[in-house]
Specification:
about 290 residues; alpha+beta; Heat Shock Protein 90; five-stranded mixed sheet
């Protein structure tokens, strides 16, 4: 395209110079002047093309980077998922192999039965970790498709009822007019993960509160345990980060909570040492 435009411009200018120099074109001087003007015209067009080519090249590079960035990010997520899954599965697989080898060496029925039970429990734990990883990947990549008014207070009470069989006492304070907009199933998982995290660290009691907070609704879960160590408070929402005394957690629950909250336009933060607060945009009922 640029070559065609240059050719047309050169042809027009050459014709103009030819007309202007027509009276002297039959002389050596006229032919020399005409040739010099043609060289100047070609050089001017080339110099004019240079910044245009640089501009087009820079624009093409920027567009290419913008277009490729989502693909690169997707590949990085896939590689990170594969690495994290391999890392987390290595330990239970090694444990299963060790249990099986020990039972084989002992050779009696009691050892075999005990080994089967421990292998089954380890496999269930590994399956749960993979489920959490898949859930986290979906939460990070897929925005909520279902958007409906959700009574966060009622959802919190329901989640607490489902968690009462773990021997921990729950205090629930859920105010009225605590509606948010989003996917109820995913918000329920957020609530359940926060409650599960609190119950693992609580000594005896968990306090749950849902209340309006300006243009948002705050859902807080606080346990009476030792709290998050200061060294982990900035990293507790990262994948596979967990306290030293948390042997049952996968290190993914809080990461999933934050992903769900942010997908709904909110966030989850740690306030004080053991109070997690999810704040979500408030839905005004009309």
């Amino acid at each position: 395209m640029l070559v065609a435009l240059d050719g047309a411009a050169f042809w027009l200018l050459a014709g103009r110079y030819h007309d202007l120099l027509q009276p002297i074109l039959g002389t050596d001087v006229g032919r020399g002047v005409y040739a010099a003007e043609l060289r100047k015209t070609a050089l001017a067009l080339a110099l004019l093309d240079l910044p245009l080519l640089l501009l087009v090249g820079a624009a093409s590079y920027v567009l290419a980077v913008i277009s490729v960035r989502p693909l690169v990010a997707g590949r990085e997520r896939e590689a990170r998922f594969a690495a994290e899954a391999a890392h987390e599965l290595r330990t239970p697989l090694a444990r299963i192999a060790s249990i099986a080898q020990t039972a084989r060496e002992r050779g009696d029925d009691d050892a075999r039965d005990e080994a089967f039970a421990r292998i089954a429990a380890t496999a269930v734990d590994a399956s749960g970790t993979i489920s959490d990883l898949l859930a986290l990947v979906r939460e990070e990549r897929v925005a909520p498709k279902l958007s409906e008014p959700v009574d966060l207070g009622a959802l919190a009470r329901s989640a607490v009822e489902g968690a009462r069989n773990n021997g921990v006492a729950y205090d629930v304070a859920a105010g009225a007019d605590c509606w948010v907009e989003g996917d109820e199933r995913r918000l329920r998982r957020l609530a359940e993960n926060l409650l599960e995290n609190a119950s693992r660290h609580a000594r005896a009691r968990v306090r749950v509160a849902v209340a309006p907070d300006g243009r948002r609704v705050a859902f807080s879960v606080e346990d009476d345990g030792p709290g998050v160590p200061p060294a982990l408070r900035e990293r507790i929402f990262e994948r596979f980060v967990r306290a030293d005394d948390d042997e049952r957690g996968s290190g993914l629950g809080l990461a999933i909570c934050r992903a769900i909250a942010r997908a709904h336009g909110g966030d989850v933060v740690l306030e004080d040492r053991n109070r997690f607060v999810a704040r979500l945009p408030r839905f005004e009922l009309t």
